[in-house]
């Protein structure tokens, strides 16, 4: 997120959205482990070797191994291997998977964030899940009954080009502001439940004058910085169908102009380099920063949760938040699709949801019962439930087939605007032309 603790929205989920970070021994809780009957003679049996692929490097291997310890115990008939593929973008990740499949490597299930879901579906890499869902309808219905309906709807709209089901959804993140109530109190101002851009700026000036702290951070991450300012002014990078670039609309230019003003008014540090927002807040140097669930782990580590609360992003015209989610498909080239589906039933089980909830995951659990549980809400900022409530006003982060290239143009233009190297209108107009060319 440049704010997600990495440089792109969901581009490097290793440190930000991947829900495995910090699982530790919590992954060893009992799991459901329902085994399905065969779903066709060409799918293989629900046994044998199985490879789960994730976007990341070897640093996450131990986390995944811990996560699947109980699955392996419950299913000794399945030999499960977790394999990371380090890539610079979801497009590169998809190409790497395609290359390995073409080379005969046995890959079965993949964890894919929103940015990669349409890429994988459009490349024809995935096996339709509908026959498997039909044979295990009760478990799937139970899962969807306990998950926000938007996740299923968005997957159908954006990651189902032919109307077939290719993914089961996992955890998600929206964007709120982490606000340090102590800094606000020291400045003699209250933390509002809602605020406008102008109110946000005015409070920032009081905070800066009385405490010396910055109001917020300024970055160019697609998910963490660009989309919140656009959406709270009724703007976006693309239209709802992800077919037309809208990055140079008057509302988008107004959004970037305001984000730039936070820097020029001295309310946000100058962009560039790495800015550790949670640490700055823990030191009393930063009053707010944007994030989903993942910064909670940083604040826990810093022992800086006291007085911190989540508040809606300030708005110009409307409430808004980007949303992104993980999902699991079966690769078409899998030689063991029945065993792959058995793994997915484990990933959507109540026990797995409990594991993620109590294990320090960096996303909001997909199951409503977990996202609203005491285990998820305790030892966290006040009003953490806002992250799930924001689904009502959330917009999926636009991620077309050439999404990685679009994201590069989007982030570069935003950085040009907030740093002052180009005027907002020029930066966004040039980027919009690039993006439209990528959509052709």
Automatic annotation (TrEMBL):
One Pfam assignment: SBP_bac_1
Name used for this protein in its record: Multiple sugar transport system substrate-binding protein
Top-level taxon in the UniProt lineage: Bacteria
SUPFAM superfamilies hit by this protein: Periplasmic binding protein-like II
InterPro entries hit by this protein: Bact_solute-bd_prot1, SBP, TAT_signal
Family matches, as PANTHER family: ARABINOSE-BINDING PROTEIN-RELATED, DIACETYLCHITOBIOSE BINDING PROTEIN DASA
Keyword set, alphabetical order: Sugar transport, Transport
């Amino acid at each position: 997120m440049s704010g997600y603790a990495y440089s792109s929205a969901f581009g490097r989920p290793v440190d930000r959205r991947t829900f495995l970070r910090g699982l530790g021994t919590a992954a060893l809780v009992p799991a459901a482990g329902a085994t399905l009957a065969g779903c066709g003679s060409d799918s293989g049996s629900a046994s044998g070797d199985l490879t789960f692929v994730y976007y990341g490097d070897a640093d996450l291997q131990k986390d995944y191994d811990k996560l699947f310890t109980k699955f392996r115990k419950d299913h000794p008939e399945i030999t499960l291997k977790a394999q990371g593929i380090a890539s610079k973008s979801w497009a590169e990740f998809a190409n790497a998977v395609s290359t390995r499949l073409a080379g005969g490597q046995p890959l079965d299930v993949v964890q894919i964030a929103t940015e990669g879901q349409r890429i994988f579906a459009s490349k024809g890499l995935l096996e339709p899940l509908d026959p498997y869902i039909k044979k295990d309808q009760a478990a799937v219905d139970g899962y969807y009954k306990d998950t926000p309906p938007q996740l299923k709807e968005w997957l159908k709209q954006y990651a189902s080009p032919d109307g077939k089901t290719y993914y089961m959804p996992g955890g998600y993140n929206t964007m709120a502001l982490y606000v340090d109530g102590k800094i606000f109190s020291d400045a003699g101002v209250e933390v509002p439940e809602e605020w406008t851009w102008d109110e946000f700026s005015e409070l920032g000036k009081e905070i800066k004058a009385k405490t010396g702290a910055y109001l917020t951070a300024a970055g160019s991450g697609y998910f963490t910085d660009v989309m919140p300012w656009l959406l709270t002014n009724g703007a976006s990078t693309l239209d709802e169908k992800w077919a037309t670039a809208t990055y140079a609309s008057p509302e988008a230019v107004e959004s970037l102009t305001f984000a730039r003003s936070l820097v020029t008014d001295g309310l946000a540090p100058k962009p560039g380099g790495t800015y550790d927002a949670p640490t700055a807040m823990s030191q009393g140097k930063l009053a707010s920063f944007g994030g989903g669930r993942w910064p909670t782990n940083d604040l826990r580590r810093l022992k800086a949760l006291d007085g911190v609360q989540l508040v809606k992003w300030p708005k110009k015209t409307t409430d808004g938040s980007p949303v992104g989610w993980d999902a699991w498909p079966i690769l078409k080239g899998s030689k063991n699709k029945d065993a792959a589906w058995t793994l997915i039933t484990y990933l959507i089980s109540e026990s797995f949801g409990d594991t993620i909830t109590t294990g320090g995951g960096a996303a909001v659990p997909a199951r409503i019962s977990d996202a609203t549980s005491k285990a998820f809400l305790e030892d966290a900022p006040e009003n953490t439930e806002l992250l799930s409530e924001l689904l009502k006003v959330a917009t999926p982060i636009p991620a077309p087939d050439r999404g990685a290239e679009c994201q590069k143009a989007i982030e570069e233009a935003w950085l040009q605007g907030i740093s002052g190297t180009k005027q907002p209108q020029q930066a966004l107009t040039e980027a919009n032309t690039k993006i439209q060319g990528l959509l052709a």
